[in-house]
């Protein structure tokens, strides 16, 4: 359950930050286009954390 919560949280944070950044840089929001990229990055982070690779931010 903790793993799923962390996954959803990371996906949401990365998705929102990508959309905000793109809207700021280009002046238009293509929010649907970023769902795969946010999910992909959160899967990558989750796998890395499961593999005992410590990530420091």
Automatic annotation (TrEMBL):
Transmembrane segments: 7-25, 31-48
UniProt KW keywords: Membrane, Transmembrane, Transmembrane helix
Keyword Membrane tagged: yes
Protein name (record): Uncharacterized protein
């Amino acid at each position: 359950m903790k793993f799923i919560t962390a996954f959803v949280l990371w996906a949401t944070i990365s998705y929102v930050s990508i959309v905000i950044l793109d809207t700021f840089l280009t002046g238009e929001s293509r929010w649907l286009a970023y769902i795969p990229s946010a999910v992909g990055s959160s899967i990558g982070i989750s796998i890395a954390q499961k593999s005992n690779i410590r990530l420091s931010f």
